[in-house]
Amino acid sequence: MEVSNQLTVSLLTSIMAAVLGSLQIGYHTGNINAPARVIEEFFNMTWRSRHNQSIPDHSLTFLWSLSVSIKDFGALLGSLGVKGLADTFGRRNAILIVNALSVVGASLMFMSKVTASFEVLIVGRLIFGLFCGLVMSLNPLYIQGVSPTNLRGAFATLNQVSFASGILLGMVRQTCSHSFSNFVHSSENRK
């Protein structure tokens, strides 16, 4: 397939659609601590329903650490499977297939509350991690394959720029959330 040296609307749309996944991954990387209290309360509620007592601190710390780090472990495993997927299905089709992992992972994380199971949350984060590792490696391959030669380097960096922008957005959101929360609490204390 010969790649044209012209920049077209369909080319820009394809590249932007590919890098939006990296923005989402970056956002979730930079914003993991914001829901910490809610997730820890969920762990405690689930533990209490199973064992009729509050979760011990060491168990809570372990479950929280596992929940956070399992995504990165999944990403490591996912990145190892890129070559096989890209060679078997092609870059574009592999990205489309891999997006199903994002939906499955998010669905499991959502269902963890319904099923009152922190194990389901952890498995959901593992599957989302697989998606992260695969898409963060497949996107640059796809972008380089469809980009005109004269723009290939610039477009290839968009994946990482999108990821870093997502981290920044997540951290800004988290900072604003904490600042607003502190403002509300300080206003309540003044009354």
From TrEMBL:
Membrane topology value: Multi-pass membrane protein
Entry keyword set: Membrane, Transmembrane, Transmembrane helix
GO biological process: D-glucose import; dehydroascorbic acid transport
PROSITE patterns registered for this protein in UniProt: MFS
Compartment(s) where it occurs, according to its Swiss-Prot or TrEMBL record: Membrane
Transmembrane segments: 7-27, 62-82, 94-114, 120-142
UniProt cross-references to Pfam families, sorted A to Z: Sugar_tr
GO CC annotations on file: plasma membrane
Keyword Transmembrane helix on entry: yes
GO molecular function terms listed in the Swiss-Prot or TrEMBL record: D-glucose transmembrane transporter activity
Residue ranges occupied by any Major facilitator superfamily (MFS) profile domain in the UniProt entry: 14-191
PANTHER family: SOLUTE CARRIER FAMILY 2, SOLUTE CARRIER FAMILY 2, FACILITATED GLUCOSE TRANSPORTER MEMBER 3
Protein's UniProt name: Major facilitator superfamily (MFS) profile domain-containing protein
